Amino acid sequence: MTYAIEAEGLVKHFGETKALQGVDLAARQGTVHAVLGPNGAGKTTAVRILATLTLADGGSARVGGYDTVRDAQKVRQIIGLTGQYASVDEDLTGTENLVLIGRLLDLTGREAKARAAELLSWFDLTDAAKRPAKTYSGGMRRRLDLAASLVGRPSVIFLDEPTTGLDPAKREDMWGVVRKLVGDGSTVLLTTQYLEEADALADEVTVIDHGRVIAHDTPLGLKRVIGGQTLAVQPADPDRLEEVKEILAMVGTKEPDEPLRKGVLTVPVRDDTAMTEVVARLGAAGIAVTELSLHLPSLDDVFFTLIGRTAATDEEIAA
Amino acid sequence: MSITQTTNTPALSSPLADTAPVGGTKPYPLLRHSLALAKRSLIKTMRTPEALIDVTLQPVIFLALFTYVFGGAIAGAGQQQAYLEYLLPGILAQTIAMGATAIGVNLNTDISKGVFDRFRSLPIARSAPLIGAVAADVARYAIVAVVTLSMGMVMGFRIHTNPLSALAGCLLAVAFALCLSWVSVFIGMIARAPGAVQGIMILIVLPLSFGSNTFVRSSTLPGWMQGFVKVNPITQLASAARGLFNGGPVADHVLWTCVWMAGLVIVFMPLAMRAYRRKA
Questions:
Q1: Measured between CB atoms, which of B40, B119, B122 is closest to A92?
Q2: CA-nearest residue of chain A to B34?
Q3: In A, which residues are within 8 Å of B120 by CB distance?
Q4: pLDDT tens, A283-292?
Q5: Confidence of residue A224 (pLDDT cuts 50, 70, 90)
Q6: Where does A58-211 show beta strands of DSSP type E?
Q7: If you count Cβ atoms within 10 Å of the first and of the last residue's Cβ in chain A, which end, N or C, has fewer?
Q8: For testing contact with chain B, the best of A55, A119, A122 (most B CBs within 10 A)
Q9: Residues B83, B65: contact at Cβ < 8 Å?
Q10: Count of other CB atoms within 10 angstroms of residue A167
């Protein structure tokens, strides 16, 4: 198995701020690699270095076997980049945006127009093709931005927080696109703040915080370390909360409590049979529930387990 | 993403599916990429006509204001028509120099929006986006020349040489403005906000355009100031245009204008490129 993306010891300082303090990354060809971390962890800085936009202060990286500094132009020929903030030209129409990229990639005028039309069609933007991008909704803009990064049929695609700010349905759509891209043999490196997203898409996950790698694993491995899932139950009758608590205590790995909302009990569970067991016991006791769900641990849980602190949510590093 | 077909575009199984050949390597990449990016700037300019006020309304207002309001005081009552002959080439030089402000403001805005990140992730020369933006400014500067001369004609200005000579005067002014653009681009790269670019450019261009022989003959100025006016590039450009429109000495002024143009490009183009790379 060859690596499409390899980075060793990436270091980047912005003045006093240490955005990256020796980050290693490796993504196998044809897989999705997720970089998981809170705001300010250094995710965007790492992507900018790999995409040849920023020079690292230390370390080295190769994309598709090409050094990101010495062979930067070769790297640029094989990558597509979609930034955290959609970087389409707002005054240009959807078509004009994509044709411009096509022309810059040395397509002829005719080829560039054809490629623009097929991408707009694929991303369901044909009706908006002749409108300036500033009239697009957030989701449409995100799709146009992604389309722009795919004009040159890149074999390595960087997606910097592709679903941040999208509603759940749009997020599912984006996940579908990512799967499609990898299905075609591309390698995708995506950054995300959501363990759920990494779990849904990634073959491997690198967790970074404060510019350092704190874990590298498969989503399954990561979940094992963190302790599986959380079961949440809300009895219809609040008076029966104590009974539910007893049931949950039997299947959970620790004492249930009410951390989310009053009247909703949660408990970490390790066993895949926990859900069915709880359902059976609730049924036997004749307890009706208004909510019964299994959750993946949040990013906070991940960080708490891995390094014993909650994830930073402030923007302390301008990443 | 739902894959609805609303045109006769062939359905793609995926956005990466190979349906057409991707272009190979072609000659003159810098030229082609810069032109593609110049076209982008032109589309943006044409779509926001209010961005053209500085190159359309401004020369009209300045010509009318200085001919009819100040003309009598400067050239003597009843001498407005003769003053127009003197003034118009100067207004052309002044307006075209002020027109160079916009490019720095626009580039500063562009970079803060992330569009340039996309360009910098493409296999094109780093300089192409800047060269393209400057090249697109030819249109704005040509508009200055056309509007200034047309308004002048309406007010009674006549060319006393020949059309070819007048065209040469306009081309010289456009070429000078293109060179001055690099100063604006440089400031656009180092300033922290678009408004700052505007302020700095006005600080540079205003003293140059008023401290020149645009409005008054340099012989009316105090001696110490004549020195400044004489080396001022706006003076040289205005004098060259005067000669080419009205007749009179041309060669020296054209030469000095060209020396200034070369100097501006040699100094500010590399500075702008370097600042652009650092801005990353």
A1: B40
A2: A104
A3: 52-53
A4: 998 888 988 8
A5: confident
A6: 58-63, 66-67, 79-82, 156-160, 187-192, 204-209
A7: N
A8: A122
A9: no
A10: 11
Angle, helices B80-98 vs B128-155, to 10°: value is 170
Q: By the 8 A CB rule, do A236 and A244 touch? A: no
Sheet architecture: strand order including A17-28: A17-28, A3-14, A58-63, A66-67
> Is the predicted pLDDT of residue A315 greater than 60, yes or no?
no
- Strand pairing partners for A205? A34, A217
Compute the distance between CA of residue A48 and CA of residue A83 in angstroms, rounded to an integer. Answer: 9
Query: Is the Cβ pair A106, B14 closer than 8 Å?
Result: no
Residue written as token pair 């300045």: B62
Residues of chain B with Cβ-Cβ distance to A74 below 8 Å are: 123
* Closest CA of chain B from A133, distance in Å: 12
Q: Do B117 and A83 touch (CB under 8 A)?
A: yes
Which B residues 178-217 touch A at CB under 8 Å? Answer: none
Residue B218: the pLDDT is 87
Query: How many C-beta atoms lie closer than 10 Å to residue A175's C-beta?
Result: 16
Q: Which two tokens stand for residue B157?
A: 């200005």
Tell me: the pLDDT tens digits for A157-171? 999 998 888 888 888
Name the residue among A54, A107, A150 with its Cβ closest to that of B23: A107
User: Are the beta carbons of A150 and B124 separated by less than 8 Å?
Assistant: no
Nearest CA in chain A to B279: A54
What pLDDT, on the 0 to 100 scale, is given for residue B7? 44
Coil, strand, or helix at residue A82?
strand
pLDDT for the residue A252: 81
Cα(B256)–Cα(B243) distance, rounded to whole angstroms?
14
Contact list in A for residue B17 (CB cut-off 8 A) is 184
- Distance from C-alpha of B245 to C-alpha of B88, rounded to nearest angstrom: 9
B47 contacts on A by Cβ (under 8 Å): 91, 132
pLDDT tier at A138 (50, 70, 90 boundaries)?
A: confident
**A50: which chain B residues are within 8 Å (Cβ-Cβ)?**
none
The count of CB pairs under 8 A between chains A and B is 145
Per-residue pLDDT of chain B (280 residues; tens, 9 = 90+): 444 444 445 556 677 766 544 545 677 899 999 999 999 999 998 888 888 999 999 999 999 999 999 988 888 888 888 999 999 999 999 999 999 999 999 999 888 787 888 998 999 998 999 999 999 999 999 999 999 999 999 999 999 999 999 999 999 999 999 999 999 999 999 999 999 999 999 999 999 999 999 998 888 889 889 989 999 999 999 999 999 999 988 999 999 999 999 999 999 999 999 999 887 5
* Residue A184 burial (C-beta neighbours within 10 Å; 0-12, 13-18, 19+): middle
Q: What gap in Å lies between CA A240 and CA B39, rounded to an integer?
A: 70
Q: A256 and A267 in contact (C-beta within 8 Å)?
A: yes
Task: Spell out which residues of chain B touch residue A169, defining contact as CB-CB under 8 Å.
Answer: none
Contacts of B48 in chain A (CB under 8 A): 91
Residue A48, C-beta contacts closer than 8 angstroms, at least 6 positions apart:
A54
Residue type, B253: H
Tokens of A251: 């299947």
Cβ–Cβ of A91/B43 closer than 8 Å? yes
